[in-house]
Write a structure and sequence with these properties.
By secondary structure, the chain is an all-alpha fold. The protein has one domain (about 20-25, about 55-240). It has 5 helices and no strands. Helix 2 (about 60-100) runs antiparallel to helix 5 (about 210-240) and helix 3 (about 110-140) packs antiparallel against helix 4 (about 150-190). The longest helix is centred in the last third of the chain and has 41 residues, at about 150-190. The protein is elongated.
Length: about 240
């Protein structure tokens, strides 16, 4: 399953808290899939003889790897998209005052602000697709029991609930980005003048941005991820 990521070339923001949470989520992914994260060395040691890694093959552990683990990868992708959204929110706050309207006869939003809004719409589309895939993984009734029948299933449902809470928080980020993108695009269209003259709009649209509100949503998502990670790590440890 592939999750969409829309990279931005003008990423200027950096959050140590966000990077810390992302690192922890990557560690969770490594635990789930049984891989090792580490820095590349210039002179790697000679490879040892391959050994068969023992992984517990139970329905719960299979669901951990095939549903929860893949969902964690998608949530990580969405974290990166949200940080790119923060960049675009900040860019709008700079670009709109610099160029309040387009210099063409029709007016409308400035070129840079228009590009910010278009790129934000790409992020929104990617988030919608990713969250749809994550929801399908977490709501798979063929993999998750309706009621826990033992401790392993209790841990599984607890981990799923934690990841679903993260997805719900990311949906709040999506709603903020989507609302900003749609409002700016609509205001841009409504402000355009008739190039043939006559009465009509002023040509200068109202363009909104909400960097502080998005930052608050991202912070809430990070808190939820920290809570969810404990349940996932505990379940992953029992499957190794």
């Amino acid at each position: 399953m592939a999750f969409l990521l829309r990279p931005l070339t003008n990423y200027r923001g950096h959050s140590e808290a966000a990077e810390h949470v992302a690192e922890r989520m990557l560690i969770i992914t490594a635990l789930v899939f049984g891989t090792t994260l580490g820095k590349a060395t210039p002179n790697p040691p000679q490879p040892a003889l391959k050994t068969i890694q023992r992984v517990r093959a139970t329905p719960v552990c299979s669901t951990l790897r095939e549903n929860l683990g893949v969902a964690v990868a998608g949530l990580l992708t969405n974290d990166r998209l949200a940080r790119q959204g923060q960049v675009l929110m900040a860019n709008l706050g700079f670009d709109v005052p610099e160029e309040p309207q387009n210099f063409s006869l029709m007016g409308g939003a400035g070129t840079a602000a228009t590009m910010d809004t278009v790129r934000m719409s790409y992020l929104v589309s990617a988030l919608v697709k990713n969250l749809g895939q994550i929801d399908a993984l977490l709501q798979d009734t063929t993999r998750f029991p309706a009621q826990a029948r033992n401790e392993s299933e209790r841990q599984l449902l607890l981990a799923r609930a934690g990841l679903q809470a993260v997805a719900d928080r990311q949906r709040a980020e999506l709603n903020l980005l989507s609302g900003t993108s749609i409002s700016n695009a609509s205001n841009d269209l409504a402000s355009r003048r008739n190039p043939l003259g006559g009465s009509g709009p002023s040509g200068t649209p109202v363009q909104i941005t909400a960097p502080k509100a998005l930052a608050q949503e991202v912070a809430l998502t990070q808190q939820t991820e920290a809570n969810a990670s404990q349940a996932v790590v505990s379940l992953a440890a029992s499957c190794r």
